Amino acid sequence: MLYAILCYHQEDVVCSWSKEEDDAVMQKLAVIQERLAREGRLGPVARLMPTTAATTLRKDREPPLVIDGPFAETKEQLLGFYIVDCGSLDEALAIAKELGQANPGGSYELRPVALFNPAGAPATPASAGA
What we know:
130 residues; disordered C terminus; alpha+beta; 30% helix; 6 strands; Alpha-Beta Plaits
């Protein structure tokens, strides 16, 4: 089963890290990522740009509304995510706990992933409206 590990933290805290602080956290995370890659369990990993670069499409109205910035009004923002292949939620939680030791603060949300358009597959009418 694939699990998404969504990485949340207070953006102003993370963006205030010096280059050295950020590099140190990234190096600790790289050790875990390299191990998971060797084990064939690591899927895509993405670090998102700050919410100031976000655009939201509110599709609950006609015409749809485009808004600068993120949709959620929260203290913690979605900063990135991992996709990991795990046999169970317990395995995914163990990885998230290990990542949390390398990158303190914030939280991780874990969700099972159901692929509706695997990489390289053409979009079908059923999957195109997400």
